[in-house]
């Protein structure tokens, strides 16, 4: 038995959601049809409104339905530190750490093989933002991947001699991690970055 | 930092999906906004079309956008066996086993504490369907839960003396299961339902 066309189309469409495979999509579709049609219609409306209404903040390039986002407009934040991340999701992650400076969101990382150079990921806009600001430090919080490291290095080089500190987030053991389970590169970084214990 | 209103509303709306908590909903919302807005808009449309267009088959009560579903209309199926299940999802599960008879979909199971009696779950319609058909066997494939068992028993009693066999799906060890991991009730059913090995 195959699903009827409308149900099949719904199942296929649900598979664009991250982490949703065929089985999960089926369960989602049938459960909504059986148990929560009004919730599903509200979801359809929320999707339409968000996809059409949410753009990018002119200043930090994070997701925002206003020209300039609430975070950029907030006068209580520290204007001396800029945190550069690869994507809007990273803003929420860094924000969660208690960081209260400003942000700039790249469009991912440099990826020459995919034809993604500095322009493609928004580095000219980053430089404009830095020039217009009064930052004393730029924290390069791109991902600790080969591409993220290369992107951080590239930006640090562009910032050299501009009278501000370009810093990189530390690598090391994740909290709660076990030495025997962590990869060798991480452990090496963790040892190289060791600090004296202050008693 | 809080999400902007449209994003927050989207995250809340995504949580109606089964198995989707706050963190997953956030990841879904941000990923769609960043990477697949056209897919998200197609999903919105598919949701609207399915919720408004899919009803229940008049004959088997499973999900269908036609008055009578493809499965009920299919002349090649076995008209002598009716399989009674608790919900539309179960139809797909049973169908997957190779069963090619007819179906009837209840609205769940009897649940007196929730005020769900025979009428609420569609038992009068089941009896009408059976009276109109030419079934020699009715397989009661409600779930092997207390409520599913009670529902199967209740229906079996209603069918007594009507000249057809009311059968119940077998309980036992799931394939690939381990005796020491399965619950005692299942194992007891499995032993009670043992069969001679045919060599
Ligand atoms: Zn902003
Ligand atoms: Zn049908």
TrEMBL record, chains A, B:
Protein's UniProt name: Recombination protein RecR
Similarity-based family: Belongs to the RecR family.
SUPFAM superfamilies in the record: Recombination protein RecR
One GO-annotated biological process of the protein: DNA repair
Entries under Pfam families matching the protein: RecR_C, RecR_HhH, RecR_ZnF, Toprim_4
Gene it is expressed from: recR
C4-type zinc-finger residues: 57-72
GO MF, one example: zinc ion binding
Keyword Transferase (UniProt): no
Coiled-coil spans in chain: none
Species this chain originates from: Pseudomonas leptonychotis
């Amino acid at each position: 038995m195959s699903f009827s066309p409308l149900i099949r189309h719904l199942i296929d469409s649900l598979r664009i959601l991250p982490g949703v495979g065929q089985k999960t999509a089926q369960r989602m579709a049938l459960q909504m049809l059986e148990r929560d049609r009004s919730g599903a219609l509200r979801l359809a409306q929320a999707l339409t409104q968000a996809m059409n209404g949410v753009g990018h903040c002119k200043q930090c390039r994070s997701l925002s339905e206003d020209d300039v986002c609430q975070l950029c407009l907030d006068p209580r934040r520290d204007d001396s530190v800029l945190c550069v991340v690869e994507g809007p999701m990273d803003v929420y992650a860094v924000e969660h750490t208690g960081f209260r400076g400003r942000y700039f969101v790249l469009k991912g990382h440099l990826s020459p093989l995919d034809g993604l150079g500095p322009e493609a990921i928004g580095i000219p806009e980053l430089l404009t933002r830095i020039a217009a600001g009064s930052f004393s430090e730029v924290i390069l919080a791109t991902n600790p991947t080969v591409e993220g490291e290369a992107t951080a290095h590239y930006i640090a080089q562009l910032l050299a001699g501009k009278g501000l500190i370009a810093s990189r987030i530390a690598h090391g053991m994740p909290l709660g991690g076990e030495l025997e389970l962590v990869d060798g590169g991480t452990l090496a970084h963790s040892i190289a970055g060791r600090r004296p214990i202050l008693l």
